[in-house]
Amino acid sequence: MAAGTSNYWEDLRKQARQLENELDLKLVSFSKLCTSYSHGSARDGRRDRYSSDTTPLLNGSSQDRMFETMAIEIEQLLARLTGVNDKMAEYTNSAGVPSLNAALMHTLQRHRDILQDYTHEFHKTKANFVAIRERENLMGSVRKDIESYKSGSGVNNRRTELFLKEHDHLRNSDRLIEETISIAMATKENMTSQRGMLKSIHSKMNTLANFPKIVFLL
Prior knowledge:
The longest helix is centred in the C-terminal third of the chain and has 53 residues, at 157-209. This protein is mainly alpha-helical. It contains four helices and no strands. Helix content is 83%, strand content 0%.
């Protein structure tokens, strides 16, 4: 393999690793944003459960803007990493590059797997955030309906009681979702640690695979 083409391949690998590191950090922050949104709304809901304040459970406008900004940044990084992976695939299929080079193909597949994992994680976290936001908006609407009913007539206590029980049911469901997200965050951090170990092992294997062979002449 010529020195020029070898340098081109190493440059692509360097770009891929840099983008993967940036994505890893962004996704961790993205997951924390989702968790803080949920926990923040729960605290606001517990603060004064039966007050006459009809403000929605969470004023998440700033977090919504942060969510949109981070989502766009992650999508851009994923697109750039996809482009680098495509260039690596083109390189392995280009003239003058051994098509059966196991080290090259293994490296390319590893970067593809990482891209797939990051893409899946991003879409999953994004869907969770949207679901939490929609649920909080619904619960805020229910709370306003309850308070409006209580302040309007002061009668039909049975209906008010049913509304409050339904509100409690939604709050319990919210607590279960918070616990699930916390477990997912712990799992994600563990996977991140394992991913770092695998990267280190993979790097050492590539170094050994590309190490010049020493031929002893008798």
